[in-house]
Amino acid sequence: MTCRAPQLPPHCSRPSHVVLARPALPCKMAAPRWSASGPWIRGNGQGCGSLFTLVSKPFCSAAAASTAINAQRLAEKLRAQKREQDTKKEPVSTNAVQRRVQEIVRFTRQLQRVHPNVLAKALTRGILHQDKNLVVINKPYGLPVHGGPGVQLCITDVLPILAKMLHGHKAEPLHLCHRLDKETTGVMVLAWDKDMAHQVQELFRTRQVVKKYWAITVHVPMPSAGVVDIPIVEKEAQGQQQHHKMTLSPSYRMDDGKMVKVRRSRNAQVAVTQYQVLSSTLSSALVELQPITGIKHQLRVHLSFGLDCPILGDHKYSDWNRLAPQKLSVGTLKKLGLEQSKARYIPLHLHARQLILPALGSGKEELNLVCKLPRFFVHSLHRLRLEMPNEDQNENNEAKCLGAQ
Which CATH number does the domain housing residue 151 bear? Predict the structure, then answer.
């Protein structure tokens, strides 16, 4: 038996663009009954009662051409937007300090757009110490440790990638042992396994880890060395913008020249900071800070509200009621080579300089971890004419070279 396609009615001719909706069956198979109840799609031919679908080739070609045109228009629109963004870039300043400020702003923005693999590779270049238990990195400025609203990239995102770069593709992700604020630079400890991470975290919690920070302050702490022992509490600041800040919750207040003890807030936390001025001028100082406790923003609050010496670039705690760029004296701005309108771009000059960990595991010696200062910090020291201790003369020489550029 031979297979034949259904015949068109005499009054209906087959157009050149007609495609049968069902392929022909092999000749060895029995021919099916051609009926409208089968899997055919009825055509729209007038009076044809056809059992095939009419597909217009000119219509398909027009649709494809329209899609191509729309894609081309979209590509042109995206290229135009990219050119517009490029033209809006801030003009390059002829002032060396202004250029450095622009570089820092650009760098912090790029950190949120960089690929995790690129960030992990950059962190490997700044490894301070590595053994079978720990990896110690130099945390860059502007990089948050944890994710949150508006955070596109953070250190926790790259820990699995960093582990694979150091120990191969089968390596387990590294674990955080503590945290640093987004704007703080310096020593940061990671552990290879959870047990070691918990062990180091317990050392931090029980205050067995010696932590030393360096900060550049606006004004000079008086006296030049001491201990700030004032509890800290989080409160809502009333201003143009309602916001929350950490602030002091002192146990005493002055009343008619007499020291009067006040009731302690139940939300206040004990906060103790030891400090020492390493170098100073009339309007600024390099201060070493040793937090005994670990309260949120403790160093910034104690310096700004306790000693009236806010950290350079601390735009949050330089004023209690306002969220505004830090106001600097004319002399300080002149030394930095900046205008007040550009002060908003000054980074926080707070650096986790040193950590001393007790012996871990089978180790018999404590681990002394020291991290060099970031370039912008060294540059500011030179501009403000602040000297570093003798053991840091190499970095001081680097600052002089930067200032000469």
Answer: 3.30.2350.10
Catalytic position from the list 181, 256, 319, 392:
181
Cβ-contact 356, 366 below 8 angstroms: yes
CB 363 within 8 A of CB 352: no
- Stretch among 261-270, 309-318, 335-344 having the lowest mean pLDDT: 261-270
Note down the domain range covering 274: 208-228+267-388
Rounded CA-CA distance 386/285 in Å is 7
Residue 47 within any structural domain of the chain? no
* 357, amino acid identity: L
Q: What is the mean predicted confidence (pLDDT) over 281-289?
A: 96
Residue 178: inside a domain = yes
7: pLDDT confidence band, cut at 50, 70 and 90?
low
The pLDDT of residue 257 is 79
Contact 124, 162 (CB under 8 A): yes
181 is catalytic: yes
pLDDT-derived band at 6 (thresholds 50, 70, 90) equals low
Q: Do 319 and 331 have their domain in common?
A: yes
Residues 202 and 277 in one domain: no
Q: Do residue 284 and residue 315 come from a single domain?
A: yes
CA geometry: angle 112, 319, 245, nearest 5 deg: 65
